[in-house]
Design brief:
Six copies of one chain form a homohexamer. The first copy, chain A, is an alpha+beta fold. The longest helix of chain A is centred in the last third of the chain and has 24 residues, at 270-293. Chain A has two domains: 4-102, OB fold (Dihydrolipoamide Acetyltransferase, E2P) (Beta Barrel); 110-290, no CATH class. The first copy, chain A, starts with 11 loop residues before the first strand and ends in a 25-residue tail after the last helix. The radius of gyration of chain A is 23 Å and the shape is elongated. The model of chain A has no long low-confidence stretch (mean pLDDT 91). A five-stranded mixed β-barrel of chain A has the order 1-2-3-5-4. Chain A has a two-stranded antiparallel sheet with strand order 6-7. The first copy, chain A, has helices at residues 56-61, 110-122, 127-140, 143-146, 160-178, 184-193, 198-201, 214-235, 243-253, 270-293; strands at residues 12-26, 34-42, 45-51, 67-77, 80-90, 202-205, 208-212. Chains in contact: A-B, A-C, A-E, A-F, B-C, B-D, B-F, C-D, C-E, D-E, D-F, E-F. The interface between A and F is large, with 43 and 43 residues. Chains A, B, C, D, E, F: One of its GO terms (biological process) is rRNA 3'-end processing. Chains A, B, C, D, E, F: Residues 157-293 form the HD/PDEase domain. Chains A, B, C, D, E, F: InterPro entries: HD/PDEase_dom, HD_domain, YhaM_exoribonuc/phosphodiest. Chains A, B, C, D, E, F: It holds the Pfam family HD.
Chain lengths: 318, 318, 318, 318, 318, 318
């Protein structure tokens, strides 16, 4: 079975894939004919596909998130690859394939990621901080297990958010060791909280973001977390004017650093300065890693990476 | 008695003024002598003043917010006016002057402003919105009566914030009449709430802002109001995910319009778009009015106005 | 008859529409065939349409600004609706439809708008100002009755400019009442003059802008109005150095506020500051209103609005 | 007699200078004493000076634009040189010095500059263009002979504007030779007209700009020239809609290239593109030349030059 | 034979052209068919073309840089012209056409351009400067004869770089005459060196740039030239700390003027300031000239020019 | 002995300090008197000081970098502390104080820092990379032991550059462990090289930067390092076109990330992306640490930190 990442024009191939998007359209011909405009994916990537001359049965059989077996031809269209589908059928239990195998996912299991996050949470010494973080982790609930960290920028896959948090916690632990003036409780709390409202900012299924939610658009995840902290403080009877509450809200509100990057205030706590760079370093290097992984080894340059000022990354030959 | 706005070099004068700022300093001479570096103010403006050769008694008598009788000489120093104090004493009850006469203040009495705000608040038809706004008005408390709207930009005087709100409510009422697609409840709520955390963002006394508070610096008034709304909703048992709560938070968060002006989200509700322009129109025209009022009639140009891109305003001769 | 705003794929429909744009193109097939690539419109909106296999007669019958009866099918093409035309013929006198019914137009009649503008013009007390404004209104002539206010940003329809002026005059009257330091004559003059050269900046027919004129591109409407004022002053023998002439030119030149928005000078008169915000408030709220009106009620979000930083507007559910 | 450019602390010197600025101030001492705060200048530069203990006679004798003989001491105050005046008296006819010797001035005589401008003007072949340019040259009148080209940026001295025009005409002639698609009439006209309203934008005496005029601030010289062209066209009965008039106005309006540099339209004629670079090249190189000339040869770096992004220029040792 | 610049829909034509780009693609039809997606060019311009139903022979016959004889039809597709190829064959020796006739090229022969550059190089008086420049000219080698000056911005054709250098040398000579404080050696050196690494920054064949090289992307031509100067200095035993080496590197590094235009340092030598404006004037006027030349005389407006802020240029009718 | 950091007005004190800056100035009095305008420093900070009525002996005794014993009075002048010197004499051998005790310095000894750098250098496995880095370390020589990393932004003290490098190497080692796609040799090389030309960009003595060097201003340290790499490659006979040389130059050139921050190219290698964030994280957190250390514990806010967008940092009370 061929991985999508390995397809090249003009390959003919057979394999199992997941329908990620599907729309019924009409050709320009006379008379117009219906066809299915599809995006197929597997864990290695995604590719557009067309089923020409779609029958009524086709239109009633195939939907987004359906697992299918496809026989097809890889074509070059406007300099991008696409599939011309020859045969297609739904996968059956006998095929022995399961949906989660076709989803791009973090390299560590969600279970392990969540365990790590809880272990760090429990290691926060200040009980007030721990209570606030704990409240927010409970509030986001199961979604922390599978939510991506972003729509497309970075960690845009199943459990991407939890993976981002865990890697940041590693950097945070290192930097607290190197810089004793940083408060480890605030660093841990800031890392766990900084994007914790993202699952509610986006509409996602199995790590695939289809849109932003209404509150995501109207408030943004940064202000949402700030309100969650208010909620947590009220729940636990913590003074809203206390330095702990204001400090945690500040660290979250300022973590994008500049107003034009979405932060209403600039970092003004040592831990807020640190959090911004811990977050940037992990996000940017993950963009590089994701681009390298999904680009064939034979290509010296990755595609352009939007989060890196639209620059491609080069594989140096040493 | 000469108003500060009317003083010109090299006038000699006698009058009552308020000590707005005071610092004890030393001259460069040998031996060094103590002198008092003072800012005097009255309702018409403010001016720097020096008391050379300050005695021990002087240093123990005069403090900020002291009302004093001054005999002095107006001098020109580095192109700006300053007072050389000849005689100075504390005002006594017999002088019949009272502190509030020396404070710059909104042209409408705080009592009337607060009455108007409450009347409009009561006219909000949607009970959920009314409850949230009411909670915030109760929370800010007495400070709404005397707080300025800003440190120096606009409405920087006693009751400036309430005055700004009331004038905006007038514009809001007009624009809701002109544009029926606007929801008057949201417009009223947005206007009352948009700056309601400013008294907690700044440290002010009698309308004079001396600094920003810690939470003012770390959170900013925009995010503070957003948290107040969360608090209000929890208090009144309103769903935090409801369109009402999200909508009010959005209107407040977006009222500065652009990220570089301090808003983490752009306006995406009709009332949010309206609120930004109601706020701008009132603030900018007040800057113009304040500059015209504190500039002698004989001057064709006001000083530069920081909030108007550092431009001065000209009195056209028609 | 179905309004364009109400069409949905895969509707079949019959109705009268106006051909707004038309181009003869060739298919990619062998042999290539001619087809008509059309944009149909009515007062509710516009939609692309194709007439496949266009005959010689078709090509000699249909042109932009032709009223036609169409039988067609609504299709989805690249996520946007388009019409596949089945039958099409020119409208005849017997059909009882008239062109102006198919043009999007201001909600107030041009006649009434012009009357209002003249009434306000006559109420300007300063005869010099009145003469200058009057000269410019005469100069623009009939075009004021039907010109749109912009190519696509806002008020982009028949009589849109006059409608924009009239609504701004309402705001101007209100704000002069609220702020007595504003000179009502300058506000009225500024509002009537600020965009008065737009009909000469754009090439428009029935409120539909097809292009900018040469002088529109080389000078821009702001500088054009400034020259009209010079012309008016010379015609009426008014001193070009007088504060009246300079003041009116300044108010027009500065009404876009910032250089990057097209103003060569920043507002430096109270009325110039006011005019910018009166203009912004009316234009931005009209963009919101236009977007809400042309979006089906069932859609919670309007399309993105270019003049509002490319943000969509949400219909809150209270 | 020592030139100001050559003074160094702690020189004692005697010489004739011009009082460029003068203000009467009071010392901080008790009792306060009057002193004269003066700026002295000669053709080589300028320097601040103090006359301590000014007598009543002193205050009635010395004014800006008075030629004086000074005996003084050069001191270093806050890292900048200033003069402590020992003796000072007005220059008398016997001294044989004349005011214009103390004014910084273009290196070519105003008479020759004006002759050159008129010669080029007469060489414009298109009579319509020639008439418009001629009208503007007549309108600016004598001021063209002595006006500086800017307040401080470049050519900020007697006849600086005419000098700037003449040097640009040389570049213009060269570039028309090199690029035959450029119309020499438009290049000549654009160069003579581009800054011709500057003498009316600024308030200047003997090449020293003390302020901007009201119309300079409210309109700016670019829009002023555009109106002058309108005036010229009306005077000569030229159609205001003709390509000649629009073209000349465009060339002037666009010569600052970008909106943030003050141009309401971008260059869209070949000659407009050329004019911007002719103007920039002459202005920037003049800034360099002026900085080199007024910096002692021994200094490897000039002071920072505001018009060159606040960079200093270095004398390379080859 | 029709020049590409003169083709108009729906012309039928026969002529010789060069295949500039070629890709084999498949149609959307069932069954899919191969077609050739081609860009044809001649010295006057370029145009897209399709060969539908491409045979196996076709696919083995036609490649980029093949000279062909084409019989075709000009069609309008999405508002842009394209060719539907009827017949196509390779050019034969009998046709008497040669490849270089179909390449857009500088209006002066490469031989003459190189001669001029060498003549100026030899006229540099300072032997150290001459040696460094000479080293770099030798290093770039033959590529200087045919390299374009840019991918598409300006001088994007055969020998475009040499032509750009030669025209700049003319301006440089003029400006050194006008401004004696400029060092002619540095001006000559700066002009010859400023873009001399461009042939190594880009991958070009016959003046057609297909991509940037790896070192072009990773270093940029500005830093590459700086390293070449280091290399030259080491080769000739010149002190790397000497003002000559630092000065030449500075002039090259700063010639884009601002960081956002690619220069790591701002111009701080008189010759560096001059070089930036000599380069800008030549590049911008060449963009204008190129646009005018490739636009039919009947069109009053050229297409938008990317290097001129996306503005089109107008042909004024005087 | 009182540390400068602990001085408060109006303390009287005696202690040893270093004269960091000294200028002879004159008072405004009649007759003018000479005084010494001094900046005193010790390892804890610096403060301005005045010696009024300076004798000829004083002027011949005290110079920058002189160790002195001072008896003085702390005064408040324009809201900043300054010293009025009562008595002052040069330190003698008997005083037992040594200059280096008065210099602010990295918290790790230069010797240890250099050892660490050499150890890491030796651990670079790729011999070509190691040779290039080694060449540059030899070239900078002893200066690496004492040079600060910047004039005032961060690590602005004795051995600050070496300290910055060593801390970055720690982060680099951590991040290479976390991200195996990063090449440790390139990370090590990038860190050691990125600022290695700073000692030649600045003029510094004992960690105190007095100015930038000519080549520092004309080339900047980023381009200087790029040339050093060219030099190193030529010295070791390494191909200048090889990926190693280009890669190292790219990593150095791009480490400021954006053009407006000084980098002529954007990061396009994984290690270049990493280096930028390693550098930022270390520099920004050091700015925070330096500000916290030099601010009295009793102050909740540090002074504004220029490199952190002019924001102060707050000490949270948990």
């Amino acid at each position: 079975m061929t991985l999508i990442k390995q397809l090249q024009a003009p390959d003919e191939f057979v394999g199992f894939y997941l329908i990620k998007e599907l729309e019924i359209k009409q050709t320009n011909t006379t008379p117009a004919k219906d066809f299915l405009d599809i995006v197929l994916c597997d864990a290695s990537g995604q590719i557009p596909a067309k089923l020409w001359d779609a029958s009524i049965t086709d239109k009633e059989t195939f939907f987004p998130m359906t697992l299918v077996k496809v026989q097809g031809l890889v074509q070059l269209y406007r300099e991008r690859l696409q599939i011309k589908i020859g045969k297609i059928r739904k996968a059956t239990p006998e095929d022995g394939v399961k949906l989660t195998d076709f989803i791009r996912s973090a390299p560590i299991s969600p279970y392990d990621l969540i365990q790590t996050i809880h272990r760090v949470l429990d290691s926060i010494e200040n009980p007030t901080i721990r209570n606030i973080v704990s409240f927010c982790v409970v509030k986001v609930g199961d979604k922390l297990e599978h939510s991506p960290a972003a729509k497309s920028h970075h960690h845009a896959y199943y459990a991407g958010l939890a993976y981002h948090i865990v890697r940041m916690l590693e950097i945070g632990e290192f930097i607290c060791g190197q810089r004793p003036f940083l408060n480890p409780d605030l660093i841990k709390a800031g890392i766990i909280l900084h994007d914790i409202a993202k699952p509610d900012e986006m509409v996602a299924q199995l790590g695939i973001v289809s849109d932003y939610s209404v509150q995501g658009k109207l408030l943004g995840h940064i202000s949402m977390v700030s309100s969650w902290i208010t909620e947590a403080a009220i729940y636990h009877g913590i003074d809203l004017q206390s330095d702990v509450v204001i400090g945690l809200q500040h660290i979250v509100l300022s973590h994008h650093n500049l107003p034009e990057w979405g932060s209403p205030v600039l970092p003004q706590l040592p831990e807020a300065v640190a959090l911004h760079y811990i977050d940037s370093m992990d996000a940017k290097l993950q963009m590089v890693e994701d681009a390298l992984l999904t680009t064939p080894e034979s290509e010296p340059w990755t595609p352009m990476i939007r989060g890196l000022e639209n620059k491609a990354v080069y594989r140096l030959k040493l």
